[in-house]
Every structure is written in C-alpha cells, then in structure tokens.
C-alpha cells in the first residue's frame, strides 16, 4: 500500500528539529528518543513512528487527501539508515568520543534537512541506487 509523500517529509521536518536540539544540547535522552523513532520506522514502516501518527491524525485531516503517493520501501530504508547514524551518535555521546556523536548526529540532521526542505531523501535515493545495481532475485 502506497503512502502519502507528505508524511515522510513532515517526519523529516520534526526529525530536523529534534536532531538540531541534540546537537545544541548534547542530549543523549533526546537522541535515544529519535533512535527509537528511527527503529520503529525501519521495522514497522515510515508511517508508524510517532511523527507518522501525528501526521495521520493531526496534519493530514487539515491539509486534505494525498495528491501524490509513493512506495513505502524507500522511506523505510531511509529510516534504517537514520537508525544506524543515531546509534553511532548514541555511542559517541554515551561512551565517547563526543565528536563521533556530534558527527553522526550532524549527518542524520543534514539528511533530514534535505528531505524536509527540498524533498530530497538521501536514504531513498540510496535505496533506489542499490535496487538498480543489485542482481535481481529469483
């Protein structure tokens, strides 16, 4: 079942704000929250994390039905990529070195920002590239 393209973009906007706060405050708790959101998105699908639920219940009823839809697979893969960066960030903030936490969080922030502002999903593009170069399964 395809998903509304505005949902992942909304989630990216919230993620951008959360990760920016993490960079300013070095909050492991807030990064742990974002890591959990990425984990839910990577395992259950991009429409299931808290930001997806917020979009479906609060935002979408106010902006109307979807005009464009997309496959949920690329955003789900992107959530997995975000999860990896968030986990590395947690390691850096929790056990050191702190620059590792800042760098990993900054990378995730940059990707979320690109999606939120320019509707360019790096993880989705990586997914599509991998699908093109990977041999077909039989």
Description:
The protein contains six helices and two strands. The chain is mostly helical. It has a two-stranded antiparallel ribbon with strand order 1-2. The model has no long low-confidence stretch (mean pLDDT 95).
Give a short overview:
By secondary structure, the protein is an all-alpha fold.
The main sheet orders its strands as 1-2
First and last CA, distance? 23 Å
Average pLDDT level: 95
Number of E-type strands: 2
Q: What does the main sheet amount to?
A: 2 strands, antiparallel
- Write down the overall geometry: globular
Number of helices: 6
Portion in helices: over 70%
Sheet-strand content, in percent, reads under 5%
Instruction: Please state the structural category.
Output: mainly alpha
Helix and strand pattern: EHHHEHHH
Keywords:
mainly alpha, 2 strands, 138 residues, two-stranded antiparallel sheet
Spell out the blueprint of helices and strands.
Elements: E1 3-4, H1 6-25, H2 28-44, H3 50-63, E2 69-70, H4 73-95, H5 98-118, H6 122-133
Antiparallel strand pairs: 1-2
